[in-house]
Design a protein that fits this description.
Blueprint lengths: L5 E5 L5 E3 L2 H4 L8 E7 L3 E6 H10 L8 H13 L1 E4 L5 E3 L2 H7 L4 E7 L2 E6 H6 L1 H13 L3 H4 L1
Antiparallel strand pairs: 1-7, 2-6, 3-4, 3-5, 4-8, 7-8
């Protein structure tokens, strides 16, 4: 799945977010859930369940992980929450995730390759010109192997 584009949304009083039809249309019919992870940059990352499971299974497990690796795994997976979509294509976002990311009800949902990102709508709009201007520099900093 390749998620692109953006859309503006309002999170309702029950913390429900409607996944845009252009993004839902990319999902196989068997996909009924997403995994949500709050990120310290004020973002909620939404992974379709199959993508999240695939990426999680790629991590090497060890009976003797380093302290840092053990902390990363326990932190990342303790914050991850499985969210089932209802028949209207909505997910109920955990209040804790919204609080950690500092998100209110007005958000933008961004296609971000294999996932969706939920960000504050006003901050996204305010930073659009700067992000566009940074695009050339960001592309130039990537190694050829990371661009493929």
């Amino acid at each position: 799945m390749l998620f692109t584009g953006s859309s503006e949304h309002t999170i309702d009083g029950k913390n429900r977010l409607s996944i845009a039809s252009k993004h839902r249309a990319l999902l196989p019919q068997s996909v009924v859930a997403w995994y949500c992870i709050p990120w310290p940059t004020g973002v909620l990352r939404l992974y379709p369940e199959p993508t999240f499971l695939e990426l999680a299974n790629k991590w090497d497990d060890s009976l003797t992980p380093s302290d840092e690796q053990a902390q990363l795994v326990s932190t990342m997976f303790s914050f991850a929450e499985r969210l089932e979509m209802d028949s209207a294509g909505r997910v109920r976002l955990p209040q804790k995730h919204l609080d950690l990311a500092g998100l209110g009800s007005e958000v933008a949902v961004l296609g971000s390759k294999s996932k969706l990102e939920i960000v504050d709508r006003q901050k996204w709009q305010d930073g659009e010109r700067q992000r566009f201007e940074d695009l050339k520099r960001l592309v130039a900093t990537q190694t050829p192997s990371s661009r493929s």
